[in-house]
Amino acid sequence: MNPLMIGPGEAEDFGNGLVRRVSTASTDGAWCAFEVTLGPGQGVPLHVHARDDEMHYVLEGEIELQCGERVFTAEAGAMASLPRGIPHAIRNRSAAPARFLNLFFPGGFDDFVVELNRLRLADAADEAKRNEIRAKYGIRFLHPQSP
Asked: Is residue 21 included in any domain, yes or no?
């Protein structure tokens, strides 16, 4: 892997508070990273990754992380490791936006995000199509999702 230095304007904004800071391709598949902003009440429900370990470093605000049976309130400066195979969820339960760095080891999660974003509008509303893509990347939601 070569040295990697990314300036503030060199990220890829996927919308909805998701900015890719480091691509899998730029790390020879070793890892990828996102800067995530969650508004009050936003989050990702209980799910599990078969392939990815996750790291979260809170930059601003506060998020609630559930990993297995453990629930952790992480404020600015907190870091959490969520190993693959253990169900986890993320939620901003505060009244202010929260911003955190989300790293995935090995890389590949950003390819999943790219593929989801390429769905046509009608397909993006189809939970079965989204689940097909999730399965391709070893991601499974544990409760039914609303479209």
From this structure: yes
**SS3 track for 39-86:** CCCCEEEEEEECCCEEEEEEEECEEEEEECCEEEEEECCCEEEECCCC
Per-residue pLDDT tens digits for 126-140: 888 989 999 999 999
What's the CATH code of the domain at 60? 2.60.120.10
Residue 145 lies in a domain: no
What span, in angstroms and rounded, lies between the C-alpha atoms of 136 and 132?
6
Distance CA 90, CA 129 (A): 23
pTM (two decimals): 0.91
pLDDT tens-digit map of 91-115: 999 999 999 999 999 999 999 999 9
Q: Which two tokens stand for residue 35?
A: 């800067």
* Calpha distance 138→52 (Å, rounded): 8
Domain of residue 47: give its range: 12-108
Give the residues of the chain that fall short of pLDDT 50.
Answer: 146-147
Count up the domains in the chain and report the number: 1
Contacts of 9 (CB under 8 A, 6+ apart): none
